[in-house]
Amino acid sequence: MVIGIIIILLVIGSVAFHFLSPWYFTPIASNWTMIDTTVDITFAVTGAVFIATNLFMAYAIIRYRHKKGSGQKAAYDPENKKLEYWLTGITAVGVVAMLAPGLVVWARFVTVPEDAMLVEVVAQQWHWSYRYPGDDGLLGAVDPKLVAPDNAFGLDPRDPNGQDDVLVANPQMHVPLDRPIKTVLRSKDVLHDYAVPQFRVKMDIVPGTVTYLWFTPTRLGEFEILCEELCGLAHHTMRGKVVVDEQEDFDTWLAAQPTFAEINALAAGDPVLGKSQYATCAACHGFEGEGLPLLNAPKLAGMDPWYLKRQIEHYKQGVRGQDPADIYGVQMAAMANTLVNDAAVNNVAAYLLTLPDEPPEQTVQGDIANGKRLYRTCGSCHGREGEGIWSLNAPRTQGMNDWYVVAQLKNFRDGIRGAHPSDYYGAQMRMMAQILSDDEHINDLAAYINTLPPPAQQSARLDNPSREKL
Amino acid sequence: MAYVALADQDHELHDPDTFITKYIWSQDHKVIAIQYGLVAAFVGIIALVMSGLMRLQLGFPNTFSFITPENYYQFVTMHGMIMVIYLLTAFFLGFFGNFLIPLMLGARDMVFPYMNMLSFWVYLLSVIILLASYFVDGGPTGAGWTLYPPQAILEGTPGSGMGIKLMLVSLGVFIAAFTMGGLNYVTTILQARCRGMTLMRMPLSIWGIFMATVLGLLAFPALLVSAIMMTFDATLGTSFFMPAVLSMGENLEYGGGSPILFQHLFWFFGHPEVYIVALPAFGIVSDLLSTHARKNIFGYRMMVWAIIIIGVLSFIVWAHHMYVSGMNPYFGFFFATTTLIIAVPTAIKVYNWILTLWQGDIHLNVPMLFAIGFIFTFIHGGLTGLFLGNVTVDLPLSDTYFVVGHFHMVMGVSPVLVVFGAIYHWYPKITGRMFNATMGKIHFWLTFLGAYAVYLPMHYLGILGLPRRYYSYGDTAFIPDSAQDINVAITISAMIIAIGQIFFFFNIFWSLWRGEKSGPNPWRATTLEWQTPDTPAKHGNWGPKLPVVHRWAYDYSVPGAPEDFIPQNVPGDGTHPVGRDHGVHHS
Prior knowledge:
A: Immunoglobulin-like; 3 domains; five-stranded mixed sheet; 16 helices; 12% strand; B: two-stranded antiparallel sheet; 15 helices
């Protein structure tokens, strides 16, 4: 009896939950309203079956439950061919009602409109980047063997089609409104999946092959890109953004992005010029780039140049050092403008590479064993020995100021750093730093990082191309 | 044709005389069944604890420093693999298969008792290898239970060194164990049925176990070869599944392999695997419903054919797990069609279960509650399968919590409810004692309602767009704070279910000593296992003479009969009216 009533209540509750729950599709931002329609049809058919079968069952249970002493006897009713054929037939009709529209919409999904704009999405652990075909409308040839710090996209420099390819080496892609977009999807390492909930479509990205999907954005705005195929430890932090612009805004944006040829033409940094440009920095960071803890200025010698450059850019663009709680960051944001252009930043970075990389003084105490346990997570990006891995956009942690590491981890965790919407890599670090809810754990980590061997003793480090190239 | 004299050759039975041969190196199917059951339950508890830890992380992110992303993805992987393979497959076939096949078919034992024993010990070895991965450098693999390459064997995935290799070896060993057991089950069912037990008189439990075993024997080889090939990729540097890739910014030596090939092989195993778990549950629940509703199963022949058709179709639907995998998208048309066709025989089974209740004399005891609970969760899980099986509808839902909710409802909660119902149902035959019904009912309500509270909201989080296999969600613009609130509620429900299992385990052990004596046939059931001369059944099951079957397994409430059941071995000799004999001839 009770179970019959409970099942009726569960049916009512489930239907109520369906209509009342605040969790449902995000407002659609693409042409794929037809997909939502197929979902609605499926809900209608399956919902009717759910209600009918369960209520019938509940009724049967209540009506035919055993009552003590009633002398009740079950019917002897082995088969009923007619009823069984009817039920089979009705079920088949329901199935066709769901399948037929599904197949029609799928046929549209696999057929890309001929006028679709082409964008390549490049996935790697745990970042997105994008390539637009340039004026010729053709994407140049790529080869994973060519991927290197100065050619992160692995473009073949001999292919003329690739010279005008526009390279977007950050996780934000732009697309114009109301125009079909065909994304071709490429992975450099493992499986990923390009998914934008508001667009409704998604597709895995498979190394060794190129997959695709298409959509037409129908709403202006920014939408989150999520990786939805488990791609390793930092899978959940692999985020990007697609910005839907008016056509002219899109054109402006695209024109501001560098082509492959332009990137290759950039001059390498000059350490001699860099030395003079570094003079201002030296006041706080020290003449040898050794860092001055009293001024809260971290060591710069030995810092990965690509990391240094990105941080200077972030300071200059107001991406970092804007939160009032980040006192020293605010100072630095003001100072960063003394490096007036990219060339100056390049020069300083080149000069810093010439400075001696001396291990700094150790100031943080902690439980090294616990730090080692926690560092397993960190090491997946920053290197097992803290050497930093350029391709993962993860800077060196070993041999830097331990007090600075502690301060930055707290800043990330507390949203003082990495909260700016354009700080994609910082946002990633922020999600990771939130694991460290306890300040002691942060000290333990820094104490463990202090025990990691210096560069000279790290075999892998010598092969790390980011040391030599800029 | 149906009757084979093999069953009478009881001289082949070995006679256990020491404690060791009776309980440790036992060749008795009933003891092996219990050995399988205990080991499977043990790993099941481990996997349950892992799911609890995952729920803690999802309900209260960034609170527990002992759950790092590595730990989390390792829990995801080990929980899934253990539950699907080492618990459910082992429990349905190793435990119920072993216990029920000879008893329900009137055989003295499996036809290959020594191989049966070996099957269990090799299974135990596979479990030990699996758990050993927690004690190697880097811990167990965190690649997800699907073990997709390339990430499974590349740095950046937890356990990409020793962990994944131990997992692959453990799977290989498990498959060897399964093959030994599986050949045994199939041979016993085909060759060792007692006189009169034609195929179309077999209880549906046996039909479900039989078809599941056949599926396993055909599907597991696909997993075995993919495990071997991935082991070669990881150790010898072959490139079966490995294209040219970078790892940690460096080019690797691999080239030319296909990650999608692995997915095809995996799901060629993986989809039948769903039915390896589901078909025995279908069969067993049919028998529970019929027995406790005191009514024959409705549409027996249709039920048998549905089991067979589902089994066959399960081999041509695998790529519905891969609609967005990057395989040729045109496959979507074919696999969506085959997948939705499979809904028809499955729906027929559901209708027939409910029609079995109709006009019954429904005893709402503990096994019946679990059977009804199963129908409810299975209807829910089956219907949400129509979303994911229909290629277009799958697009927004694939890889989200909708999938997690769906497969837990359909192949987690539903089969587990059957497992519990079946344990309560056969407990008196296994132990000779009754369990405590009150504790059983508490266990049912906590498990059933708790599970629905966990998995129903997950579907809606999935529709919202929450991806599965995320350690945490951070600040994601489209995810409202209320999603976190419901995650807290789900975690609390999960904890209640976990605690509810104490009622089960306590009941099972307490009743061993304190349970009422049950007698041979407390449910007044028709099938042969309830007609053994001794309860619990002794070695050899049947005393001096094997039973002879005279009727189908569902002669409940036969009009004119003095009792509301007629056991299968009661002859139609005039003192008892013969129940309608379905589609078969007397032997």
